[in-house]
Design brief:
Elements (H helix, E strand, L loop, with lengths): L1 H25 L9 E5 L5 H10 L6 H11 L8 E5 L5 H10 L5 E4 L6 H10 L5 H10 L1 H5 L15 E4 L5 H14 L3 H10 L3 H14 L6 H14 L6 H6 L6 H4 L24 H8 L8 E4 L5 E4 L2 H17 L15
Length: about 350
């Protein structure tokens, strides 16, 4: 009997000690002065995850957290990513973050029509990478070379979109995402239409980039593309201000069109050597499906829309009319496009 009582007392004592220790290690840590990052790698075992959390002080005991995960059946539901913990979170709350995938992401928004240089600056503002490193790799890095985009680099192929990156993302991670999004949009239907129009990928994005820079109103994109295709067919220079401005960063349009360069379509015939920006899907669609039109000229109104003309005479009359209206309202004369045309 005494032996039985002794055993019972020992068991109660041990359970009390275990409960006390377990309770102590199950308590949430004190809040941190700064968030602590824990990375869960893809394919990582939950035991490794638990030890990473313990090392960061997010949980008090990797063993207790492992037992909790096994008891609740959540160990296999953890999502990889970079997690930020502020402390003061119990095991249940920590596990909820891991299961829901509440990992930290850096959002980068790339609008249509930016150049590589402008994209590099925008990415650099997030603190992810150095802008100079991004620009250098985008213009001639190993990934760009492997895709056969040299010698002009990835200009035109960095697809405008909203991206979400890990805080540990590298330049190649970011480039891969942007280039990958572009090639995802080269569907069999797109490639079939490219073949019908006699376009390869570079000529497609070159035309789309010019349309992107010229069109201020989305609905005018196909019409502007139609004008440029008409001019190409007739052997008339495109005479696009944005192409001339591309290789002379900081120069005014008036100065750019007077300066010879490979991108000055007032000087050269046909398309420039490559894209002048990174176009969005609507401009790519306009380059693939231009409007059927007889227009050869257009000039911009103050509101961003354009007056389209079939002949040089009509075009000059449109320019004169817009300038007269500008003078009448004491406004700055409207910026014109494609004013320099052979008689």
């Amino acid at each position: 009997m005494r032996r039985f009582v002794a055993i019972a007392v020992s068991i109660v004592f041990i359970l009390t000690i275990v409960s006390a220790v377990g309770y102590r290690y199950a308590l949430p840590p004190a809040p941190f002065s700064e968030p602590r990052m824990v990375t869960v790698e893809k394919g990582q075992s939950f035991r490794q995850v638990a030890h990473s959390l313990e090392s960061a002080g997010v949980v008090r005991s990797a063993l207790m957290f492992l037992l909790y995960a096994q008891f609740t059946g959540t160990a296999r539901k953890v999502k990889p990513g970079d997690y930020a913990f502020r402390g003061g979170e119990g095991m249940a709350e920590v596990m909820r973050h891991l299961v829901r995938g509440d990992f930290v992401v850096v959002t980068v928004i790339i609008p249509e029509g930016l150049t590589i240089h402008e994209i590099a600056q925008r990415v650099g503002e997030t603190g992810l990478v150095c802008p100079d490193d991004f620009e250098r790799e985008a213009k001639g890095g190993a990934l760009v070379q492997a895709l056969g985009l040299m010698p002009l680099g990835a200009e035109g192929y960095l697809f405008p979109a909203t991206y979400k990156f890990s805080p540990r993302a590298t330049v190649n991670d970011i480039l891969s995402a942007m280039l990958g999004r572009f090639y995802q949009n080269l569907t069999p239907q797109v490639e079939e239409q490219m073949f019908k129009r006699g376009l390869d990928a570079r000529r497609l994005v070159t035309m789309a980039s010019i349309v992107e820079k010229e069109a201020k109103m989305p609905g005018e994109r196909p019409l502007i593309a139609g004008v440029f295709y008409n001019r190409l067919k007739l052997g008339i220079p495109l005479q696009s201000d944005p192409t001339a401005e591309y290789s002379l960063d900081g120069e005014s349009a008036a100065a750019a069109v007077r300066t010879p360069s490979a991108y000055n379509t007032y000087v050269i015939a046909g398309l420039p050597p490559g894209p002048i920006a990174n176009p969005g899907l609507k401009s790519i669609d306009a380059a693939l499906y231009p409007a059927r039109t007889d227009f050869l000229y257009f000039v911009a109104r103050d509101d961003g829309t354009h007056v389209f003309s079939k002949t040089l005479k009509e075009h000059n009359e449109a320019i004169a009319s817009l300038r007269k209206a500008a003078l009448h309202t004491a406004a700055v004369p409207a910026k014109t496009a494609h004013e320099r045309h052979p008689e």
